[in-house]
Amino acid sequence: MDRLSLPFHTGSNYIDNGTYCTELYTFLETHREIHSTHPEDYFRNGMSTNHPDKGLVKDWITNLGDLIRSGGYTVVSDLLELSSITKGGHIWDAVKEASPTLFEFARHCQELRLSREIDEKDDDAEGGRQQKFLERILNCGMSDKKRHEVRRMFHCIDSCLSTSPADDMIKTVINIGEGKGYLSRTLALCKGLQVVGVDCNPHHRDSSFERIDRVLTSRIFDDGDSFLYEPRGSMTSVTCRVDDHTDWGLLFSKIPSSEPSLSDANPPPISSKKVCIACGKIIKSHLPMLIGHLTHSHPGTSVPDATGEAALWEWACTQFSDFKPLAAESDPKPSVKVYKRGQRLVIRTMVFDEHKKRVSNKKKNKSNKTEPTSDDEPPKSPDATETVTVLGYDDSTGGHKVLRHSNKSRLCLPLPGDVVEIDTISPSVYPVSESLKDTMMIGLHTCGDLGSTAIKLWESSDSSNLVLVSCCWHSLTKRGFPLSTFVSERSFPTTVTDLSLMLATQPIAEGLSAEDLPTFISSKKLLFYRAMLPLYWPSLSSCYSSSKEDRFQATNSLPPIFLRDMARMKSDLTFSKFVEAIKDSTFAPTGPSADRLPADIEKQFVESDFSSFLAFVLLRNWMSQLVEAAFVIDRALLLAEKGCFVTLTPLFDGALSPRNFAIIASKNKI
Predict the structure, then answer these.
(1) CA angle centred on 250, ends 247 and 255, rounded to 5°
(2) CA–CA separation, 279 and 297 (whole Å)
(3) Distance from C-alpha of 411 to C-alpha of 627, rounded to nearest angstrom
């Protein structure tokens, strides 16, 4: 426990990890009736206040339900904000007066919650080229959520690298569950690290080269700088499923000796436009646009089920021809070399002067006016040169769009044949040892058991550092929990059910605004209707005759797409509409009484039971962060038991990214 650091709240009574962990797991064992009961089973499991069985939890539900019934739904928002219990207030005074044991339960839930307050100072990175490049990458195709996550992970990893011993120089990062590689590209381009991404989705691997090339060539700065001329690490993606016995030697054998270029996976066409052979339409030479045109304009065209961009490009070239401008057909020109976007060239300065004169003459001829020329500019030496950065190629004129470094101007002109290409900087490629020496392992939102596997693989290797953020707790199995001896020896793991896993996965609902409260209430009302349905299904189904296959014999058989449609109705949803939707999908009415029954049921039970149902939802919500803490602490405890130094810290803003706890581990004391 001494090697583990937990994020306690400021002023917390817990100063010893062992005491806290013991109380946390004991508390969850004691109140498993709450976190392991799904709201859909509210009536069936006897949680309803109308049920004859009595108990402490039933009393709490009754007391909370009475407060909600008397104070209205705004009370729910106040009760969701559990952090306000330490400040007191009217609502918590009312809870304490109604049930001292309920108040103590709420207070204990708050005390056991780990702090989710993030350290903002990491976002204030120092200025300079690294910061400029970082901002450019973050603004290249990332959502606000992903941009926040990548920025925070980048600073966290950067901090780990800066505190590593001098003799333990980390050169390679292994990104488990890489996904689309947002974080990998940021680390390679801004830190010069070699990144090996491991992901089980082959589509991510197939398009990784295109995404890398797009970032390298699309980010051109106002001063002409581009990533092609900056030191960077190589980026490689490997399609592989990792497990506890992953053969790193076999996995690394799939890594090429040098970073592949775009032409290896997606050869760019000579022309930037294509012509459909079937209808003659001119389309931008972009593979998704070409396939989209064939799919919508020529439905009879069969797109092959090919894997990889190269195979699809080869097929697309049989459906389209290169676009040739009319000027090129009437006045054939010698083939023009097309330079890649981001390429730097050295050009004679006289080329720009000649281009300026041509443009000026065209304007004069068009206006038929004679304008005086100025000879004030000093004559240029014919040997004078300057550097430009290629921004693109224009088929219609046969010219290149370039950025002049001398005056930051942009223009399009044909390039002469005597230009000099400036070689781009090749990425750094390092050999990787099977023992993972000189590497760091990372994972951004590794799902379910993958996070547990990553921890085991890192602990058993020579990799020095780990930064891991887990998610998708509902996918966790017995292989992934429990891991630590401390938790395994307790009875808590045997009480964990799929329902508890789902509770740990739900978004953080605390301190709802007036605008968000109606949506929250309507979502819980849908849950309430799903809980009511099994009770009255015999009465409802007897009023209908089956016209289709009966697919709604139980609540858990309601398909997700049906529930999503119901959720969109929000405040307009009633039990009558809920049953009507099921009826339309499955049954046909046999009598007029069928239309009145759902409304009668709703009138009888929504008014009397919905407030108590909300009370039960609140009790579960208070425990949701504790269940998640139990899972993530178990992983941190395993590493601490193995002698590693571990810090558990909130890394992301919970409002943007609810699964925000990061495990930061090192095998050397920092």
Answers:
(1) 130
(2) 9
(3) 60
Q: Do residues 427 and 117 touch, judged by C-beta distance below 8 A?
A: no
The DSSP-derived string for 553-587 is: SSGGGS-HHHHHHHHTTGGG--HHHHHHHHHHHHE
Strand order of the β-sheet with 645-650 is 4-5, 645-650, 661-666, 465-471, 439-447, 172-176, 194-199, 235-239
Residue 58 has a CB neighbour count (10 Å cut-off) of 17
Please state, in angstroms and as integers, the Cα–Cα distance from residue 132 to each residue in 136, 138, 186, 227, following that order.
Answer: 6, 10, 12, 11
Alpha carbon separation from 565 to 85, 268, 570, 595, 644 (Å, rounded): 37, 43, 10, 21, 48
578-587, long-range: CB within 8 Å, 24+ apart, which pairs? 578/526, 578/529, 578/533, 579/533, 579/540, 582/552, 583/544, 585/548, 585/551, 585/552, 586/544, 586/546, 586/547, 586/548, 586/549, 586/550, 586/551, 586/552, 587/541, 587/544, 587/545, 587/546, 587/547, 587/548
Phi-psi sector, 330: left (phi>0), alpha (psi -120 to 50), beta: alpha
Task: State how beta strands 344-348 and 320-322 pair.
Answer: unpaired
| Tokens encoding 595 | 């239309």
Q: 202-254: per-residue pLDDT in tens?
A: 777 766 667 777 777 766 766 667 788 888 888 888 888 888 888 888 888 87
Contacts of 398 (CB under 8 A, 6+ apart): 328, 333, 336, 414
State the pLDDT at residue 492: 76
Please tell me the predicted confidence (pLDDT) of residue 310: 74
- Rounded-to-integer distance, Cα 408 and Cα 429, Å: 34
Long-range CB pairs of 135-143 (<8 Å, 24+ gap) are: 136/219, 136/221, 137/185, 137/186, 137/189, 137/190, 137/215, 137/219, 138/186, 140/215, 140/218, 140/219, 142/182
Question: Measured between alpha carbons, how far is 188 from 427 in angstroms, rounded to an integer?
Answer: 9
Phi, psi of 308 (to 5 degrees): 105, 145
Compute the distance between CA of residue 214 and CA of residue 207 in angstroms, rounded to an integer.
11
Band of the pLDDT at 296, cuts 50, 70, 90?
A: confident
Angle at Cα 171 formed by Cα 168 and Cα 177, nearest 5°?
Answer: 115
Cα–Cα distance between 292 and 305 in angstroms, integer?
A: 15
Q: Count of CB atoms within 10 A of residue 204's CB?
A: 17
What pTM was estimated for this model as a whole?
A: 0.79
Which amino acid is residue 198, in one-letter code? Answer: V
Residues 650 and 657: their CA atoms lie apart, in Å, by: 11
Longest dimension (CA), the chain: 103
Scanning 568-655, the segments in alpha helix (DSSP H) are: 575-586, 593-641
* Structure confidence at residue 433 (pLDDT): 85
Residues 6+ apart with CB under 8 A from 300: none
CA separation for the pair 341, 402 (Å, rounded) = 9
* H runs (alpha helix) in 460-516: 485-488, 492-495, 498-505
**DSSP annotation string for 400-436:** EEEEETTT--EEEEPPPTT-EEEPPPPPB-----TT-
pLDDT digits (tens, 9 = 90+) for 12-37: 777 789 999 999 999 999 998 899 88
